[in-house]
Each structure stands twice: as structure tokens, then as C-alpha cells.
Description:
By secondary structure, the protein is an alpha+beta fold. The chain is built from 4 helices and 8 strands. Mean pLDDT is 86; it is low at 159-163. Adenosine-5'-triphosphate binds at residues 55-56, 59, 83, 85-86, 88, 96, 101-103, 108, 112-119, 142. Its EC number is 2.7.13.3.
Amino acid sequence: AWFEMVDLFSALRGMFKPMLENHSVALIFEEPQGLMRLYTDDRKVSHILRNFVSNALKFTEAGEVRVSARREGQSQVRFAVADTGIGIAQEHLAAVFDDFSQVASPIQKRLRGTGLGLALCRQLATLLGGEVGVRSELGKGSTFFLVLPMQLSEASPNRDVLA
Length: 163
Ligand code: ATP
Ligand code: MG
């Protein structure tokens, strides 16, 4: 269905607000660049971004997690979730979207989940005809992204910018 970018971002902001109260990490939503309304399965998109943000907050001690969306060319949109966290070593990058993939490290022991979050993100992205990816530098942070082919609408008569 059609949905407004501002609604997606404010829903995500509301979802994570309680988690941020005792957190020294800021969760920042950038104003969407060149796109306001999108036609896609917003529940799948929201699920993927929720997973990215939850990982980013889990693996970041201090600094920020920044969520952005920008139009790429005529028919693509790129969402990114960038953190200033522990990062991922190059040799582990290729596998993070695999089932049960978790980077073994002492710091991470207490942060363990099932290792299925990103595998599900990749499957959802495939269902949307898009793809997920990651860039990372150990000790500096990671950027997870979702690229979708999409019908775009620049006009959004009733809504302006992110509140
Ligand atoms: P689950 O999501 O099922 O609770 P999980 O978070 O460990 O468990 P994934 O979300 O699939 O599993 O992530 C896989 C692994 O990729 C993580 O265990 C972690 O090692 C690494 N990872 C994911 N996101 C980040 C991030 N933002 N920074 C550093 N490492 C990350
Ligand atoms: Mg996870």
C-alpha cells in the first residue's frame, strides 16, 4: 500500500523510545531525501528497519544510530541504519545475513539472540524485490542498508517534514 515516510519513521521512533531512556546512544531519524510517499509492503519494510535499529542499539555503547532514506535514480530507494558501535570484521561481513550467524566475541556473549534477525531481513527484502547489505569497520561502526525498487511519489500534499 501507499504509505508516508514520516509515518514509518515516527512509528519506529515511538517503538524504540522506551528503550532509549537509559541509553547513552541517540536515535536519529533524518528527513527523507527526495521521497515522501512510497508504494510497497510497509509492514515488511518496517520489520527490516526495526531489526536493523534493534541490532544497532544492541551493539553500540555510545554515540548514535542514524536512520535515513533517500531516493536513488528513478526507481529505487535506499534506507540506511548507521551506528557508531563495535563494528564487524571484514571476514565476518559476508555471513551476517546467514541463518544463525553470530560473530563470536566475549563482548557479544551477553548480547546473544538467536542469530536469525538478519536472515529474516534478507528474506523479506527478497520478497520485496530488493536487497540488504552492510558496510562496517571494526571498532568504528556499521551501516546496514535496504535497497528497494519502488514506485515513488514526490507529491505529498498534506504532510511536510518530520516532526
Ligand atoms: P536476533 O536478532 O535473532 O536476536 P542477533 O541479533 O545476534 O540475534 P542477527 O540480528 O541476525 O542476530 O545478527 C547477526 C550477527 O551480526 C549478530 O550476532 C552480530 O554479531 C552481528 N551484527 C548485527 N548487527 C550488528 C551491528 N549493528 N553492529 C555489530 N554487529 C552486528
Ligand atoms: Mg538481531
